[in-house]
Automatic annotation (TrEMBL), chain A:
Taxonomic lineage: Bacteria, Bacillati, Actinomycetota, Actinomycetes, Kitasatosporales
Localization annotation: Cell membrane
Cross-referenced InterPro entries: ABC_transp_permease (IPR001851)
Record flagged with keyword Nucleotide-binding: no
Gene Ontology MF: a single term: transmembrane transporter activity
Record field: compositional bias (Low complexity): 282-294
UniProt cross-references to CDD domains, sorted A to Z: TM_PBP1_transp_TpRbsC_like
Protein name, entry field: ABC transporter permease
CC terms in the record's Gene Ontology section: plasma membrane
Organism for this UniProt entry: Streptomyces fuscichromogenes
Domain of life: Bacteria
Membrane-topology descriptor: Multi-pass membrane protein
TrEMBL record, chain B:
Keyword annotations of the record: Cell membrane, Lipoprotein, Membrane, Signal
Entry superkingdom: Bacteria
ABC transporter substrate-binding protein PnrA-like domain sequence ranges: 47-317
SUPFAM superfamilies registered for this protein in UniProt: Periplasmic binding protein-like I
UniProt signal peptide: 1-27
Species name: Streptomyces fuscichromogenes
Pfam families in the record: Bmp
InterPro entries, alphabetized: BMP_lipoprotein (IPR050957), Peripla_BP_I (IPR028082), PnrA-like (IPR003760)
Membrane-spanning intervals of the chain: none
Protein's recorded name: ABC transporter substrate-binding protein PnrA-like domain-containing protein
GO cellular component assignments: plasma membrane
Subcellular location: Cell membrane
Length: 301, 350
């Protein structure tokens, strides 16, 4: 009774914003920048998407503006962590806090409302085959980032920069340039995630509407070991856990229990993956890292 | 080199922090004291709101209430609008300093602040609306609502209007207080159509009050099972519930204020809280010398109602305006509740 098409649709809808943001997070992770500002980047995307769609009447311009504004917002992390060598975690937390405050403030000044802006004439994204076009884009992005990271020169250099910046620099690959690119790309992807949430999943803006999705994306990056396919699987796991949790409420399971479902699944997955990893590589992570960084073959080409 | 950069960063962070603090103070200081001076009786009332009034219907009604009270007692009224926790505290302090006859505060946000101030200023009268202090004070009166009575009537409408015989609710959290918005909905529907199937989904998650996408999915799980009438008690999530219902051609019910304009043709009716009635009557009884008590407002006192039962239903954009026959039956039920012939179970009292 669980595996009906409604459940599948529900999973895919819940998945899209998380997946887009998590892919952005994965790119940063690979470039050696730990981006936990995904939540804030997404929220900025949500607000810009709704504002632009409202004033121009075009949801597509909303999507573009969301990508641009989140990319601009991600510069805080890029400049702070790469140029000024600040702590990426502190910067990420600050970005999340600032985004929550800034969007609430702008909601009041631009729309004169508090809490939620919603209007029947606000244009959302059209549905193609039951999903917003950004859903398909998210899946395409998985393939593109996977190919980029594993098969493309630029992707190899990006990984090199992340794993051994000094080695990369000696070989003439600029770590700063690659890190900037990764952070900006993650901004674009988070902007798209925000647009999907605010103009696809629902058509409105409400304060703090990302509601922890950015954090789930951060966990998906870790769980998927920053590999696009792994990230996809992790995000899918969350989507399924949540959607199935909703159904279980219908069967009388208390809300408190179904709320815990995604976290129980995370813990379970974490145990399983680490157990497997340990079995495979008996060496400590420290030694793997040192062998990697002295091996220039992964960086050059 | 490295160290210098770190220094710059620290400075930047400090500067950013200072700017944030400065703006916060600025916002806190923003206090709108609209004075409606009229009378000479010397009675003065101050309303402190937890948020800026703006387009907030719920708070707008409270403002109407305080103005009406001033008019009735030939006195003056002031409204202090807060924007955040800091400004709430400052506004209450400012209100206390001005020593009006009654200070009216709307919302649970004020519970702790009022408790402190009531103890310090035993001669100042406070009226809390839609919440109360945990301890009772001689100079704090409370006005609370019996939301479940209105929700019951909305449920009756749903029972009468449902074609599939299935009505559901999307609630914020599974707590007794919030169950007031879902359990009576089911009870009301079963009262008018005994065979009605009912189900409640709770939004839950990390921020149940803001997550409209999650509320929409919860509504979808109901709609996909054939539920065609959905009570929306999910705060900001209500808009998500309305969107889901609209997409499936189903119907929804709003809370607190008239939410029909946000989805005309989808929202049937709303369970409204008449804060104006609670403020006006509350002030009345405080001036009459009844203080330190909690009075609850329901259908009988006119503190809880449905948009459909109020004047102006025809211009409300609510679906119920086209179902006069349903309204007649609901009115009969309301009269039974008002007369005490029918009692609605209160989930929060269990």
């Amino acid at each position: 009774m669980f595996l009906d098409s409604d459940l599948l649709m529900s999973v895919l809808r819940a998945l899209t914003p998380i997946l887009l943001a998590a892919l952005g997070g994965a790119l940063c992770e690979r470039a050696g920048v730990f981006n936990i500002g995904l939540e804030g980047l997404m929220l900025m995307g949500c607000f810009t998407a709704v504002t632009t769609s409202w004033f121009t009447g075009s949801p597509w311009l909303g999507v573009l503006a969301a990508a641009a504004s989140s990319a601009a917002y991600s510069l805080i992390l890029a400049v702070g962590a790469v140029t000024l060598r600040g702590d990426a975690v502190v910067l990420g937390v600050a970005m999340n806090l600032l985004a929550a405050g800034l969007t609430s403030f702008l909601l009041r000044t631009v729309f004169g409302v508090q809490g939620t802006f919603d209007d029947p004439s606000l244009a959302g994204l059209p549905l193609v085959g039951g999903f917003s076009p950004l859903t398909y884009l998210a899946w395409a992005a998985v393939v593109v980032t996977a190919v980029l990271l594993s098969r493309h020169v630029w992707g190899l250099r990006l990984r090199g920069v992340g794993e051994a910046p000094d080695a990369a620099a000696t070989l003439g690959v600029s770590p700063a340039r690659h890190k900037y690119a990764a952070v900006l790309l993650s901004g674009v992807l988070c902007g798209l995630a925000g647009a999907q949430l605010a103009l696809g999943n629902v058509t409105l803006f409400s304060e703090n509407m990302t509601a922890g999705r950015g954090w789930i994306a951060v966990v998906a990056v870790m769980l998927g070991r920053a590999m696009p396919l792994g990230v996809l699987l992790a995000a899918l796991l969350f989507g399924i856990a949540e959607a199935v949790g909703f159904r279980l409420q219908g069967l009388g399971l208390p809300q408190q229990a179904t709320d815990a479902a995604p976290y129980v699944v995370t813990l379970g997955a974490l145990f399983l993956t680490t157990a497997r990893r340990r079995g495979r590589t008996p060496r400590t992570t420290g030694s793997t890292r040192s062998t990697r960084s002295t091996d220039p073959s992964g960086v050059a080409t | 080199m490295h160290r210098r950069h770190r220094r710059t960063l620290q400075l930047t962070a400090l500067a950013a922090g200072t700017v944030l603090l400065a703006t916060a103070c600025n916002a806190a200081a923003k206090k709108d004291a609209t004075t409606t001076s009229a009378g000479s009786s010397g009675k003065s009332f101050t309303l402190v709101t937890p948020d800026s009034v703006g387009e907030n219907e719920f708070l707008k009604l409270a403002v109407t209430g305080i103005k009406d009270a001033a008019k009735q007692h030939d006195g003056t009224s002031k409204v202090y609008e807060s924007t955040d926790t800091a400004s709430q505290q400052q506004n209450v302090q400012a209100a206390v300093d001005a020593k009006p006859d009654v200070i009216v505060l709307v919302g649970f946000e004020f519970a702790d602040i009022v408790a402190q101030q009531a103890e310090k200023n035993p001669k100042q009268q406070f009226l809390m609306v839609d919440a109360c202090t945990t301890k009772t004070y001689k100079n704090v009166s409370c006005a609370v609502f019996r939301e479940h009575e209105g929700v019951y009537l909305a449920g009756a409408e749903a029972g009468l209007l449902s074609r599939s015989g299935k009505v559901g609710a999307v609630d914020v959290l599974d707590t007794p207080q919030f169950r007031r918005y879902s359990d009576p909905f089911a009870a009301g529907a079963k009262k008018v159509a005994a065979k009605t199937e009912t189900s409640t989904r709770f939004v839950g998650g990390q921020s149940p009050f803001d997550d409209s996408a999650r509320a929409k999915e919860q509504a979808n799980t109901l709609l996909s099972k054939g539920y065609d009438q959905v009570m929306a008690a999910a705060a900001a999530g209500n808009y998500g519930v309305f969107e889901a219902a609209k997409a499936k051609g189903a119907f929804a019910y709003g809370v607190d204020v008239n939410q029909c304009p946000s989805a005309p043709g989808t929202v049937v009716d709303n369970v409204i809280k008449r804060t104006d009635v609670a403020v006006e009557k509350g002030v009345e009884s405080v001036l009459g010398g009844t203080t330190g008590t909690t009075v609850s407002y329901g259908l009988k006192e006119g503190g809880i109602s449905l948009t459909g039962l109020e004047a102006g239903v025809d211009s409300s954009k609510c679906v119920i305006a086209q179902h006069k026959d349903v309204l007649t039956k609901v009115r009969a039920l309301r009269d039974q509740i008002v007369s005490g012939e029918l009692t609605v179970d209160d989930p929060a009292a269990k």
